[in-house]
Write a structure and sequence with these properties.
Oligomer: single chain
CATH class of the largest domain: Alpha Beta
Low-confidence stretches: 180-184
InterPro entries: CoaB-like_sf, CoaBC, DNA/pantothenate-metab_flavo_C, Flavin_trans-like, Flavoprotein
GO molecular function, one term: ligase activity
Distance between the termini: 38 Å
Number of domains: 2
Strand content: 15-25%
Largest sheet: 8 strands, mixed
EC number: 4.1.1.36, 6.3.2.5
Catalytic activity: (R)-4'-phosphopantothenate + L-cysteine + CTP = N-[(R)-4-phosphopantothenoyl]-L-cysteine + CMP + diphosphate + H(+); N-[(R)-4-phosphopantothenoyl]-L-cysteine + H(+) = (R)-4'-phosphopantetheine + CO2
CATH architecture of the largest domain: 3-Layer(aba) Sandwich
Helix content: 25-40%
Number of helices: 13
Radius of gyration: 23 Å
Family: In the C-terminal section; belongs to the PPC synthetase family.
Shape: globular
Number of strands: 19
CATH superfamily of the largest domain: CoaB-like
Length: about 400
């Protein structure tokens, strides 16, 4: 199979130095990378660095190697164009179809998926002009990743930080996999999706809790693939130790009650809600304010449990017309029978049921499952990366959303 051709456009922002790591990941994973920096980008990282890391010349103007017509050919040959950092100026030029350097010419001639990873100060990101430019690009099928929240240039902190290069790389992999046919694939563009991930913890005392083994990896895979398909993603993350997926708004929670509040709040304007988190069914009736001590010769006091709210059933009961609600069921026996019963009991549109156990599903890099629909259709998803299962879930969700439109 031919190596995918990736054009890495680099904008003129201080975050350009971080893009060297993205370039390294792309090159080492078997992609042919052509770096096209703006002239401003070279003020931060020089041409020699881009050329050395990519193994190909890095030019900014249309007059270099003019006999090869680079302002046309680079975009025509690309399987993916990713722009990082995408500055406010570069987003504006792309949205308005300007072509005053090699990168903007490339963007106009590309007929492949295009990913923008913005980075700028918060005020610039929130300005109505930038928001309108982003909306324009998304309407045309480009994937514009939401910037991260964190330390910016100088002492400023806020939304506008370039997402982690490793997470941008994962978005690029997802876009390449989904847009392999040649045309951009952003079937969730304009959609807001909510994903829950991880496992809730119910405190017994200040140092102990009732919890489960969910790592959050499947929920994070769902968030990443939704970003790659153009969605605005809210990720409600319960006790995970994973880097924030690029482009997702992450709401950290601890207990089932906190998860319920965050999910119901985010679901108000969501087109789809996918409950991949392992939510505790029970919690201690009372929490000790001090550490429960072991008493010599005495058995421990019984722990009295009470039910937690059923978040999935509540979502299904409260969903508005056209909203899709997806549940997950981790089962250890009678997997399909238990899954079908849970789907009927919860009232959701789809249920993803998988068998769990030692070295199965929890904490692993791969997964297998059966997607059961309320209408009775069942889709087995064979063992494979968790992103594979995530894409099959979004395939089913987009089909249901399309039928509701």
């Amino acid at each position: 199979m031919d190596q995918p051709e990736v054009v890495l456009g680099v904008g003129g922002g201080i975050a350009a130095y971080k893009v060297c790591e993205l370039l390294r990941r792309l090159a080492e994973s078997g992609h042919r990378v052509r770096v096209v920096p703006t002239s401003a980008a070279l003020e931060f990282v020089g041409e020699a660095t881009w050329s050395a890391l990519s193994g190909a010349p890095a030019h900014t103007g249309v007059w270099n190697d003019v006999h090869e017509v680079p302002h046309v050919r680079i975009g025509q040959r690309a399987d993916l164009v990713v722009v990082a950092p995408a500055t406010a100026d570069l987003l504006a030029r792309a949205a308005h179809g300007l072509a005053d350097d090699l990168l903007t010419n490339t963007l106009l001639t590309a007929r492949c998926p295009v990913v923008f990873a913005p980075a700028m100060h918060t005020e610039m990101w929130e300005h109505p002009a930038t928001r309108e430019n982003v909306a324009t690009l998304r309407r045309r099928g480009a994937v514009v990743i939401e910037p991260a929240v964190g330390r910016l240039t100088g002492a400023d902190t806020g939304k506008g930080r370039l997402p982690d290069p490793g997470e941008i790389f994962e978005v690029c992999r997802g876009v390449l996999a989904h847009g392999a046919g040649g045309s951009p694939v952003a079937d969730l563009a304009g959609r807001h999706v909510v994903v829950s991930a991880g496992g809730t913890r119910e405190p017994l005392d200040p140092v102990r809790f009732l919890g489960n083994r969910s790592s959050g990896k499947q929920g994070y895979a769902l968030a990443r693939t939704a970003v790659a398909r153009g969605a605005r993603v809210t990720l409600v993350a319960a006790n995970t130790c994973l880097p924030d997926p690029a482009g997702a708004e992450v709401l950290p929670v601890g207990t089932a009650a906190e998860l319920r509040e965050a999910v119901l709040g985010a679901a108000g304007d969501a087109d789809a809600v996918v409950m991949a988190a392992a939510v505790a069914d029970f919690r201690p009736a009372a929490r000790s304010e001090s550490k429960i001590k072991k008493r010599d010769g005495a058995d421990p006091e019984p722990i009295v449990l009470v039910r937690n709210p059923d978040v999935l059933a509540e979502l299904a009961a409260r969903r508005r017309a056209g909203q899709v609600v997806v549940g997950f069921a981790a089962e250890t026996d009678d997997v399909l029978a238990n899954g079908r019963a849970k789907l009927a009991r919860k009232g959701c549109d789809l249920l993803v049921v998988n068998e769990v156990g030692e070295n199965r599903a929890f904490g692993t890099e791969d997964n297998e499952a059966v997607i059961i629909e309320a209408g009775g259709e069942e889709t087995p998803v064979p063992p494979g990366p968790k992103e594979q299962l995530a894409d099959r879930v979004w395939d089913a969700v987009t089909r249901l959303l399309g039928a509701a439109d």
